[in-house]
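Newbie here. two chains, one complex. Structure please?
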Amino acid sequence: MEDYPEELRTPPLSLVSIVGCPELHPAISAALSSRQPPMNLLALPDFSKASILARTAKARDPLAPPQAPAGILKKDWLLKHRTRVPAAVAAMFRADQVSGDPAQWLQACSDLENLKSVIQGRNTKLVVILVQSQAGDELSEDVTVALRKRAEIDSKHLVVLVERDEMEWTKSLNKLTTVFAELCTTYYKDEGRRVKARIEKRNFSSVELSIRYCFKVAVYAEFRRDWPEALKFYEEGIRVLREMIGTSTRLPPTQRLVEVKAVAEQFHFKISTILLHGGKVVGAITWFRKHIRSYERVVGSPEVAFLHWEWFSRQFLVFGELIETTSTTVPDTLSPRFGTADNALTEWEFQPAYYYQLAANYLREKRYALEFSSSSVSLTKGVNGLPESVMPSVYVGQYVRLFEQGDTVAVLPLSDTEYTSYALSEAERFQDSYEIIALFRKAYESFRSLGATRMASACSGGMAIEYYAAGDFSNAKQLFDGVAGLYRQEGWATLLWENLGYLRECARKLKSLKDFISYSLEMAALPLFSGSGQGNSENKRKNGPAGSPTISSRELIQQEVINILEGKHASENTDDEFDLHLMEESTHLDIDQISPLRIVFLASVAFHDQSVKPDSPMLVSVSLQSHLPCPVMIDKLEVQFNQSDCNFVIVSAQEDCSASNSHVHDGAVQTPLTLFTDKWMRLTHEVKPEWKAGMFGGEGNNK
Amino acid sequence: MASTACFVIVSKNDIPIYEAEVGSAPKREDQAYQHQFILHAALDVVQDLAWATNTMFLKSVDRFDDLVVSVYVTAGHTRFMLLHDSRSEDGIKSFFQEVHELYIKIFLNPLYLPGSRITSSHFDTKVRALARKYL
């Protein structure tokens, strides 16, 4: 919203102008500003400056056919009427200037005539102000009557200010401001009525003029604080604007869309501001939804889709900011029964954070579209080149090219190809990822303060994805870890899968082998719903690096981990992401009661007897279960007790044990050690009394 | 008939126990993540809204793009969540009510552990049939 010009962001204030007697302008300006609503003053110190109020001459040939307008809204029209075109002008004279010697009287008459000729052609109202030093100094009736006739104004529009009498000064100043207010209302009403007459009589040659007239009538209504009328014509203008997308042929297609959306943005901003400041939150949200629905599918050609998403994102951002700044109170009855029966409003739609997170999502769409546009246009960049000296036009949403030839400066229209190149080069200058992160962070903090942990988590995930896209893997990993914690706790396996996919890639990029293996094993063992079938490759960019959670994906992940652990990957490719030094050491993973890897491996140890007696055999059962999709071959299994003497080893029977047989302790047992998915493998080991007695009966052995 | 819809049953511990992509659109696996993402985030609103009203059917509790979230909360605080585009409320309500009856039958099974996943293929077939009928 800060990018919008000042005259658009604030409601228009009546503008009046005062010419002459500059020493009194500050006091009058303060009085005008303190009125409700306030008025703006355009102060001109002397009459020679009055030419600034003159209308710029438009050389209109009466015989020429009506020329088609070159645009919809002129960029400076609103600013002009707020800063340069006053509704009323006051000619200010001191009493001695009009009641002194004839030369001064003639000078005053000449100044007045000049002022009248300057505002000729406009409907600007004229006021004459006479300044007296004392209340007792009575101006002669002849002078005031002559002055009024010369100015052609009503008697009540000649105001006498008494300078040195405090009470009289205040009273006369109030009268002056009241006269100004009345004249301004009349001016803006007359101007609005004049333009409205053209709308009602269909007195325009093109649809562009129709929209422009709606805008003017609405602005004049805003000047008068006639909000219902302003709203009515803004809505009418935006309706006509929407229809001209398919009909107008003035501009090439891409630039036509850009112009229409820029104008629609201004109209809707005005509508939202009026509704929200009027306390009509439900109406504003309903209108916003209508606005979004009108344009969400008007994307344009793929090369310039990024312009659409940038515009789309800004609609949400600006609307969220408007809701935030108007400090609206959500209605007490929190019922989803707002709006029409078919389109009930949700509770989130009253929160600015809702719009910030959607703005972030759509800005990400812009980044996707921009990547697509850059890759496609770069092939032909050498041919087209960039048009030079492109600048915004005097019309809203239009761009032109400056062309210099000697002393002549011409303005040439752009072709769509030229405009696309320009827009692309402009867009590539910005780093969208950090803007997206800022939007998500704003929404995240708001949702967290509202106690909405899942929405906050969704925004946190959005931040993480953007950090990932920008190559900041450390920040991304930290955020993904937090989000994964919530999904683990609540058991949303599909969302956890996506999250772990990113975490795995972050660990790979950060060369964290242990984390990579942990995340990979957790992914491979995730319990997924049986509905998961074979994923297709469409919309690959929508998914994270994990892809679809299919059985084959999980098998691939498990195989990758096994290859890394066995060192095959390192031998095949010496440029592997992981440090080769790490391969030399064994990887140690702890799986305890709170480890997320409990879903990967489960181990259970049970004694068959309640007590252990000397010289009796003891049976111990070790049960293992794996949730990995592929069978797991175990080479060796060590069972460790607090007393290390009790430890024993189980070696896989499939291994060639002839060489190691001579070293195996008597207690070693050979048995197949292959874990199948989701099946318990029970191993029963008997501790023989001879061996056990031998260990504990040291003295006996000595005998 | 809906172009896209996702149906999830969430237990009182906020853990999803049943999930189905329903609707006439061709099945797209990559959409499942996005749909569940929206439904998971919508739980925040349901959490507050369920105690503010005495009706079981909460329509349009959340929206994202053109997709709307409607929720049905049972007496045991199990939540049926449906992600859909704009359509008739009556069909959605009837769908919820009939799924509720199916869910009660699952719940009455003494071998079913409350809060655990519903893995019955019979239940799955019935739910998809109801989706085709009402949605």
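Moderator note: Chain A has 25 helices and 16 strands. Chain A has four domains: 1-54+68-222, 247-329+342-429, 430-529+541-564, 599-651+667-685. Thread marked as resolved.
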